[in-house]
Each structure stands twice: as C-alpha cells, then as structure tokens.
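hiii, so i know i said id send this last week but things got crazy w the move. better late than never?? heres the sequnce for the chain we talked about at the cafe, plus the structure i predicted for it. fair warning i was half asleep when i ran it
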Amino acid sequence: MSSWIERVSQSHKLQLAATAVVSGCLVGGAIVGLQAAKRQYKVYDLKESIPDLRDEQDVGHINSFGGAQDTTRNSKEDEAATALARRAQLGDYDEELILEQLARNRVFLTDDGLSKLRNAFIIVVGCGGVGSHATAALARSGAGKLRLIDFDQVTLSSLNRHAVATLADVGTPKVHCLRKRLEQITPWTHFDCHNELFGASSAEAQLAPWDGHRPDYVIDAIDNIDSKVALLHYCKKNGIPVVSSMGAGCKSDPTRIFVGDISASTDDPLSRTTRRKLRALGVKDGISTVFSTEKTGPGKAQLLPLAEDEFAKGSVGELGVLPDFRARILPVLGTMPAMFGMCVANHVMLEISGYPHEYLPSKSRDKMYDGILAALQGLEERTARSMGLDPLGLRIPVTQEDVGYVVEEVYRGRSAVSGLAARLALVRWRKPGKDFINSEIEGQKSSSVELKDLVCMTKDEATRHEKLVLKGDSKPEDLYDAKVVKLVEERMAEEVRFRNM
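okay and structure toks below
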C-alpha cells in the first residue's frame, strides 16, 4: 500500500488522474445534494400551499347559480387573436379577404343569400355538444352576429363532443371558450356572450334585440326540459323563428336524423315530454326540430340511473349542477351531437338566406290516425246502440290530432295490454254511464268521451274489450292483470296532470 502511494506521489500523471477522480466525486455529490435539496424545498412549498381546513377560507359559490365565472385564461397567442378580432369587428379588416374565406358559401348561396346571413342576428341557447357545433358552423359560414347563452363551463367529459374546446379551456365558461376559439377563425364575427342560465323569467332580456336588431333566428340546444319549453314557448308567442334540437344522447344511427315540425317528432323521449308541456301551454305545432327516429333496443345504450349507494347517501339533488337538472348519466356518442348541431346550423342558414329546401319527411302516420279515429267513431255508435240510445247524428269530441296525441304521447305508440305496436285502436277503458250523451243541439249528439277515458290496444284486443266491458258486465280488473291496470291508470293520471298544467 505504501509503495503504491509512493508511486502516485512520484508520478505526475497518476496525481492528475487521482485529482480528477476526487473532483468528479465531489462535483457529483454536490449535484446530487443540490437536487435533493430542491426536491425537499418543492415538497415543503407544496405542503405550505395547501390551506389548513381549520383556517378561514375565502371560498364561495362559483357564481350565484353554480356556473363558471365570467373569466378566461388567455395566452399571448389568444391575446393577439383577441386584439385582431376587436379591430376586425370595428371594420379594420380587408373585405376581399372575408369574401375569399367565404368564397364557397358565396357561390352556393349567391351574393344576396350570403349578405342576408352576414347581416343576420342569431341566438344560440346552450353551447354544449350540439350548440357548439351549430355556432362553429354558422361562424365559419359568415353569420354576422351571434349571441351565445349558457351558464355552464367546459369539463373534461365535454371534450368528446365539443366543437372547439381544448384541454386549456377546461374550467372556463363555454360561451367564452367558443368566442375565443372562433375569433381566431372568423375575427370579424360579432359575439355577445351571456354566461347565464336561461329561464322564463329572464327570456325577455336574454332574447332582446341587439342594437335594435331583433333576432332573425334562435337555436334551442338546451337539454333541460323546463328551460327548453320556456324558450320555445317564448319564441312561438313572440313570433321569433326558432329551431329546436331534440335528444342526441343514446343515439347512434345518423340515417334516422330528420328535420321537421315538432308534431312529427314522435319517437324521441325528450321531444315527447317537450311536446306535452308545450301542448299544455297551447302550442301544438309550428316549431322546427331536429330529431332522431332511432329506437332503443337490446345491446344499445340506455339512460343510466344513479347507483344505489348514491341514493343511500341522501341529498341526491346536490349531485346536479343546478336543481332540477339531470343528475343521471346520459351515454353520448361524440359524433351524434355534432350531426344534430350541423343539421340545426344548416337549417338556419337555408332559412335566413332564402335558399330553397324541402326535407324528406319522417314516416307520416296521418292515415293511421284517421283510421283509428273512424274506428273510435264506430265504437261509440255501437256502444250507444247497446245502451238503447239512438246513435243517429252522434259525434265525438276527438280529432285526428287528439288521436295522435293519445297514441304517441300517452301510450308511446304501443298497446297498453300487450305492448304491440301494430294495428292499433283506441277504446274506452271503462263502460260509460248514463251521461254517455253530452248534449243534443238540433239533432247533433255529442259523446261525453274524453281523452283521459281512452286506452290504446290492438284491434283484436279492442274488439274483445268492447264485447266484455263496454257491452258486457266485466270490469277491466276482471280481464287484465294488475300490471296492465296499473299502467293504464298511471298513463290516464299522467294525461290529466299534463292537461291541467
């Protein structure tokens, strides 16, 4: 060992090598020590940044109604785009560049049609999957003024269907996310963002004119039924053109998407409830809708209820963003809201520009309703005759529209007895009493039958029911099991409840 040390001390090269090794070890140790110290400081700072639960916290509701704050986080790129948009909206943007960007729409709609679209004021209520795609399509196509109304914020789960949101937008209001992203595409478009919940009490202010310009069209992309009904009723009452998007959740077949009057959207659950509530307010038709005729089936997505353990915890209402808003899980294929939104935007563009359009109608059932109505008229006459009454001149206070309402809305297009959907008929559920004839004026006899008295069956079931109940001595409880009786009674009570709203 001593001889090795002596050699090192006498050898200049070995001395240099030893010095390098020792220096390297010292430097490596210093680096490792510094990194460890930095980690400790970072952990310390992170722990210090977490407030103690015992301390007083300056935290309240996100805003007065639980929505996102009216704030955005802008990058330098966003700030530059916003500045450009402000100048463009004040007219500091080359008109030739705008027309070049809109060249394809221009040759399609013609100069006159594009001019109408560029001067239009359109309101979009609901800026989620459907509304965001509708807004993006309108902005890209040249729509001049867009008012966006939505109380909600972008979430991670929004990104499977939102038109323009990115990870950077999570936690920001949907209306400002749309404005910020679309201003980078069409900086000359004027946006009026309302980070608010739409409701009947605020409808007048939220749908008010913009600089004296009444809305040319309103788009309903709301998924809350009460808000949807309030919007559609207000627009219908005040003569504002409106198009409503019905449910895109649980849908997967793009070939079954139709554009038509709300009275034709019979296969959509959201539309069904909306129609019934509007009917109670005196609105039966005259509202354009985008809806799907796709029916649910084995293996298809279903509306998922909350897990039992959530109910066991109590306060289920706290799980929703707002009271009365859906707290259940609605499966949504990301492509379907986009298709609904594009159909809505397409309809608005064609309407505003005056472009000729005639949509393929969904399956019409008017002939079926006429047949059911005629059969019901004959049934009432035979019932009157069996009671010893003269059926001459007897009329029933039921219309084709009433037949469609009872069949589609109350009984979902199926027999209450067997659940079959073919060869349907309407028949009184119980045998009428002495008040069968409601009135008689100049030979006109009016049957006392009301919609709440009718039940939907197949023709064969109705024939048997007529023989045993209406002409015989049996009661419905004698013929049908408790499940069928309960279903009919519930549907009849539901009809009365909707009618008395």
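btw DSSP finds 17 helices and twelve strands in the chain. thought thatd interest u
miss u guys!!
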